[in-house]
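Example 5.3 — SDR family oxidoreductase
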Amino acid sequence: MRKSILVTGGTKGIGRAICFRFAQEGFDIVTCSRHESDLIELKEELENNFPGIRVLAELADLSKKEEVFAFAEKAKKFASIDVLVNNTGVFLPGAIHDEPEGNFELMMHTNLFSAYYLVREILPEMMERKSGHVFSMGSIAGTTAYPNGGSYAISKWAMLGMTKCLREEMKPFGIKVTSILPGATFTASWEGVDLPIERFMKAEDVADTVWAAYNLSPSSVVEEITIRPQLGDI
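Solution (predicted structure tokens):
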């Protein structure tokens, strides 16, 4: 039976790379974005490159609770989800004491609350059939304190904590839970930075890591993976 993966924020960067990596393995793809043109382009590219798969690409702003629920309902009607990747996120630099008003709420709702709500919608079916894998896309900002991390770092520390709790809860149900903690990866978040592209990790390397963690036997789970640029953090 064909399997399905749900990747939030799948039109760019790491999310896009994960969609393509799993499509390569014959997975149906479910994803979302706030930009309709990007969704249309992604769906066409996936279907052209992998004609045997199905793709659901939905317009959704996951910083809004009601849109998370609406997207989840469409996803569940489309396919039985085998892999959930909570990848959607936003990064706005700033210090806790003086970052712009609203940064905290936006990043917590986008980076953390969306994952919390989506997990609660998708997990019941996984629990019923006693199989599935949940990946949380964190960051080294969720394990290492640094100046100007602000609310982004707070959201990623919280994401790691939530994922650790979820791992313990899902053990009896045979559901694997993995935290992915990437360092600087060449995505839209780093556009305009005056550094050579070779200084960053490739999004495809993160996607390959997710696939490798998923592809273990049922008796093993990778709980947490930290991936950094070879020359260290930026």
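Remark. The chain has a mean pLDDT of 94.
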